[in-house]
Amino acid sequence: xxxxxxxxxxxxxxxxxxxxxxxxxxxxxxxxxxxxxxxxxxxxxxxxxxxxxxxxxxxxxxxxxxxxxxxxxxxxxxxxxxxxxxxxxxxxxxxxxxxxxxxxxxxxxxxxxxxxxxxxxxxxxxxxxxxxxxxxxxxxxxxxxxxxxxxxxxxxxxxxxxxxxxxxxxxxxxxxxxxxxxxxxxxxxxxxxxxxxxxxxxxxxxxxxxxxxxxxxxxxxxxxxxxxxxxxxxxxxxxxxxxxxxxxxxxxxxxxxxxxxxxxxxxxxxxxxxxxxxxxxxxxxxxxxxxxxxxxxxxxxxxxxxxxxxxxxxxxxx
Length: 318
Prior knowledge:
Layout (H helix, E strand, L loop, with lengths): L1 H6 L23 E4 L3 E4 L11 E2 L3 H16 L11 H9 L21 E3 L9 H9 L5 E4 L6 E4 L15 H5 L5 E3 L11 E6 L8 E7 L2 E7 L12 H5 L14 E3 H5 L5 E3 L2 H19 L14 H12 L1
Antiparallel strand pairs: 1-2, 1-3, 4-7, 5-6, 8-9, 9-10, 11-12
Helix pairs in contact: 2-3
């Protein structure tokens, strides 16, 4: 019902729901009234033609405010992120964004080099649990404890970096608060930069992602949930491995041995692409003519696209 309402342009608040994840009905913010059947969470209610549904009423607003108040009572602000869905809903409902956590304080996990975990900012929506299970297929994140002590944990309720986590960052990508936040780059406020869509260049799968730019420099990445190849899923390289793009040691021009250009010297010198490619082509032809084609070997790469590897094997065969 939640998907049906949103497709019709009817906004129903929700916190535990994410379009890429299976529904959980944990936050109870998306409740709607069904004629003759009472109040139900819209994310779990199957849509059908014979239902008469009310999505906004004084009764529903009161129920949503009560559920949101309980979430805020167990929330301690973390490092902060501009897309904090909990605080956005609190502001829209006129509730105080920080009400003081009623749960006992837990140590912040800083051991992961890429993702910070602050359990005190967790509102137990279980999005990260479902993302690790259904998107990444690992199930490293689980729920530990019972009742009021229920909490998110990694592995056997241990630090994230020792739990078997692959550091893909999908848990952080779906987190609606600042319980999980990136430690490199980071999410930018909309006013601080712009977002462009691109294809990850680490392999030939063709995963699409969003680059966040500040002054035309990459400051972070986020998943593209509408991407046809990966539907938002990214590996650790696609999510966090963009530092090489603007690294000062990155090569932007080809290097060749000085002896190949000047007849002496073994050091590497910069040249232009036309000179380098012409040198490679002439050397390949010379080796084939002087020693035979069996003296040539070619190494391809999984970081190339399928089309590039096709052309490479065609060159090798011919």
